[in-house]
Amino acid sequence: MSTLFGSELSSAVINTGIATVILIVAMSLLSWFFPWLQKKIQSLPHSQLPALKIHNFEIITAQSLTAGICSLLKALRLVINVLGLYFYFSLVLGFFPETQHISDNMLHYILDPLKEVLKTIVDYIPKAIYVIVICLVMRYILKVIRLFFLRIEAGYLKLEGFHAEWAQPTYNLVRILVFAFTLIIIFPHLPGSSSPAFQGVSVFLGLLISLGSSSAISNMVAGLVITYMRPFQVGDRVKLSTTVGDVVEKNLLVTRIRTIKNVDVTIPNSNVLNSHIINYSAVADTKGLILNPRITIGYDVNWRKVHELLLGAAARTEGVLKDPKPFILQTALDNSYVEYELNAYTRLANNFDDVYSELYKNIQDLFNEAQVEIMSPTYHALRDGEGMHIPSEYKS
User: Fold this and answer.
1) Which pLDDT tens digit goes with each residue over 133-185?
2) CATH class entry, domain 289-394
3) DSSP, residue by residue, 219-231
4) Cross-referenced SUPFAM superfamilies, in alphabetical order (predicted)?
5) Fewest beta carbons less than 10 Å away: which of 140, 199, 227, 361?
6) Would you call 345 helix, strand, or coil by DSSP?
7) What is the CATH architecture assignment of 219-279?
8) Long-range pairs for 325-332: beta carbons < 8 A, 24 or more residues apart
């Protein structure tokens, strides 16, 4: 019996020595192979290891991809070393009869989960094929829908009552609906979808998103309403609340206005929808935008003379249209003056401030040349009734 035991022990020791030599050699090879492979990858030119892109958007640069592969190799080397040591100790313990049961348990700790994972993967293959087929079908459906809306946007396909600028936002809405429909179909076939933990996490994340994005969702809804209302287009001169400027961008969340001082103002779409929207450019190209400067003149000046001077100022102003003809309205008969309103047409909606300024200059010049005193804004002064408040160079 002692001879048999000694024979088994010597055999176990010899096997342990062989296993140890194999482990040392394997570890040495790994210690040489992985650093060599990392150096090879790091020395590759960027043309052989291109960046990951989606269309023109660069997701991962070539440098980041190289660093990521090297980090992955380090992690893989660590995992292989740990597994090698684990199997080495399991194998060595199996050589000795007294510790063979420990070796069996150690192997079961690794092999049983691997068998379970492999069985789960094999069982999931039919469902995975179903999910892949559904995703492919929906992908090609989206391509057809996108082509349809691109034709509308380009003007090749026209639908009555459907404007071309609605094509892109409508496609985005349809795409979201298709994605939601696809998710509803494939959700029961996703791994772990029936797990209570998975369902609980899904509800929790949905609650977080709904509570945290309430203002964003209201802006998105307002952005959709504004899109289909069509109150303005990019490039229009508008007034939103107290902000006047040109629309430089509009999206689902915000509208950006550039004022005449070159200041960009970002306004949430919910605020835009809740305020009055004044569009100066809407009909400026077709019917013209009416400029309406007002002045007040004393009762001692014949109204026909005032009309003549105002129309002359409009005729002098660059940017004011000759047709339609300017016209004048007398809007008030006050205690000490008459209020006149000049209405002149222009197509320069995005530069109406400049036209206004030029028009005011010409009104001042013509009235001073005719020695007619403009009484607006009203001011108080002690006068003897003889003096006239116009620049001295115009007095005769």
Assistant:
1) 988 999 899 999 999 888 888 888 888 877 777 888 888 888 888 888 888 88
2) alpha beta
3) HHHHHHHHHHH--
4) Mechanosensitive channel protein MscS (YggB), C-terminal domain, Sm-like ribonucleoproteins
5) 140
6) strand
7) Roll (2.30)
8) 330/303, 331/294
Instruction: State how far the Cα of 21 lies from the Cα of 18, in Å rounded to an integer.
Output: 5
Distance of alpha carbon 191 from the chain centroid: 32
Q: Which of 371, 373, 363 is nearest to 309 (CA)?
A: 363
Each domain of the chain, given as residue ranges in start order, spans 2-95, 128-212, 219-279, 289-394
**One-letter identity of residue 372:** V
- Would the pTM count as exceeding 0.70? no
Percent helix, strand, coil in the chain (nearest 5)? 60, 15, 25
User: Does the bond joining 324 to the residue before it have cis omega, within 30 degrees of 0?
Assistant: yes
pLDDT class of 4 with cuts at 50, 70, 90: very low
At residue 267's C-alpha, the angle toward residues 261 and 270, to 5°, is 155
Q: Which residue has the tokens 């020595």?
A: 17
Asked whether the beta carbons of 390 and 309 are under 8 A apart, the reply is no
pLDDT band at 342 (very low <50, low <70, confident <90, very high): very high
Residues 225, 219: Cα–Cα separation, whole Å = 10
* Least confident residue range of 80-84, 208-212, 226-230, 338-342: 208-212
Q: How far apart are CA 96 and CA 91, in angstroms?
A: 9
Q: Are the C-beta atoms of residues 253 and 237 closer than 8 Å to each other?
A: no
**Tokens 């009055």 — which residue?**
276
- The closest alpha carbon to 347, from 382, 315, 321, belongs to 321
Packed helices 196-212 and 214-229: angle between N→C axes, nearest 10 degrees: 60
Quote the radius of gyration of the chain (alpha carbons, Å).
Answer: 41
Instruction: Say whether 289-394 and 219-279 share the same fold.
Output: no
pLDDT at 377: 56
CA distance 318 to 180: 56
Of the pLDDT bands very low, low, confident and very high (cuts 50, 70, 90), residue 5 is very low
For the beta carbon of residue 181, count every other beta carbon within 10 angstroms: 13
Question: Alpha carbon of 72 to those of 78, 336, 343: distances in Å?
Answer: 10, 88, 74
How long, in residues, is the chain? Answer: 396
